[in-house]
Amino acid sequence: MTEPDALPSLWSHEPRVQLRFRAGxxxxxxxxxxxxxxxxxxSDAPTLQAERNTxxxxxxxxxxxxxxAGDTRSLLLVLQGMDxxxxxxxxKHVVGGCNPQGVQYRSxxxxxxxxxxxxxxxxxxxALPAAxxxxxxxxxxxxxxxxxxxxxxxxxxxxxxRYDEINAFERELxxxxxxxxxVAMFVSLxxxxxxxxxRLERPDKYWKYNPGDIDERLKWPAYQQAYQAMLDRTxxxxxxxxxxxxxxxxxxxxxxxxxxxxxxxxxxxSWPPPDFDVEAEKKRLAAV
Amino acid sequence: MTEPDALPSLWSHEPRVQLRFRAGxxxxxxxxxxxxxxxxxxSDAPTLQAERNTxxxxxxxxxxxxxxAGDTRSLLLVLQGMDxxxxxxxxKHVVGGCNPQGVQYRSxxxxxxxxxxxxxxxxxxxALPAAxxxxxxxxxxxxxxxxxxxxxxxxxxxxxxRYDEINAFERELxxxxxxxxxVAMFVSLxxxxxxxxxRLERPDKYWKYNPGDIDERLKWPAYQQAYQAMLDRTxxxxxxxxxxxxxxxxxxxxxxxxxxxxxxxxxxxSWPPPDFDVEAEKKRLAAV
Lengths: 288, 288
Description:
Two copies of one chain form a homodimer. With about 290 residues, chain A is an alpha/beta fold. Chain A has 13 helices and five strands.
């Protein structure tokens, strides 16, 4: 450990507590501009982000090291959010801070014909992180109760039971040693408009723009309803949702980094003991 | 492009030319302490590495962006080297500089029972990078003519034809649009001893130590012979090997970063044009 394990003093409250979804919270009331629990401002972000990326990377290496010694635990980050909420930025700037060796990234777009021919959790199960790895879901099985519900891709009789199925699925993962960090990222309609407009101004951003994003934007109220149901019905003790306001990218990145650090610290890891006789190996090495 | 596209002036020669394996080069003569083509020293490395990581990340994003517009090209980095040569450090410090979204990492350890029940290229084909991705092989199909040959895991009649098979396999990949960057990393026996000793001194490094590393070390002459055959027989015009001296980690990281940048520049990419009417979309967005 090269760093003390305390929460940085710029945080007044632990993000895992402060941002945890609580029954009764209404999606329509979420202030995407807010910076809950943080007493600093944007000028504090670059230095703090770099420091915390280093801490995150250390813990990730320890998780990986333990898996080599037989520990089967893993971590799964689930990112859900509307277009432009900043999921890609989290992958690049937060997850990107740790060793690619221990990361399994998967984006869940429109299902392929093969995926559609299976149960909706089939492609999700295939992408689960191996022991010692951090899995990153850029969108996830929650698409099957979000876009699927909003666009009526299947009838209510099909998506309705999925909330319970997802809870059972996640309980199974947690029992098997996967810590799940679920993050719902919220950007305001105004901020989304600015971000989409920026993509239309810059030729190096055109590829991120999809005319369908505007169609989704028009369905905002239906999405709010679907997000509300998701939070109300799938935020469990073993896999709670966290609400992250994302109008300020620097804040959402800091907050999600802390959520990951806190989850890894919760595993109470130390470096694995050697499975060989250290002194005997030193002698062997000296001789060759 | 936020950076001029010239080779940094600290390089006297392009690494892809300087480090390319040439017929007649003997593995036994490789100076692992050397820093070919580089006129700077260790003190120049941190700043230059950070700058070039940024350039590499930009080009990686462009490769990824083009794949979203239908470009099927990809890049495959093949890392081969003895224990402690620094393969893991390249993954962490070089590949780690770009967006995990576009990277597919795969380490090839001892084959599983299922893998052994297939052709040796089966597991390799499954790990090939998708369009727009950078695949990273930490060890690779070359294990099947290195450790397999040195340890007599299959008879010569089985491994002998593999050199030609591998060439045919790689030709197929290149024809299909994958640029292959093959890097043979060389560390000296003395430096390897130091690095193994360090792992035995630090409890946070024990997990990287394997008593089998010493057994491999004792087979150094046989490995040199196997590496020589690999270079002599599989360095092709379409997928040449590069020899990277690795006693100085800062050098090997800078060199491999340049090899990747040069390979990506060779794809002559630009940002993909929009597949929508930009002005029409601006109007649509303004209205919602």
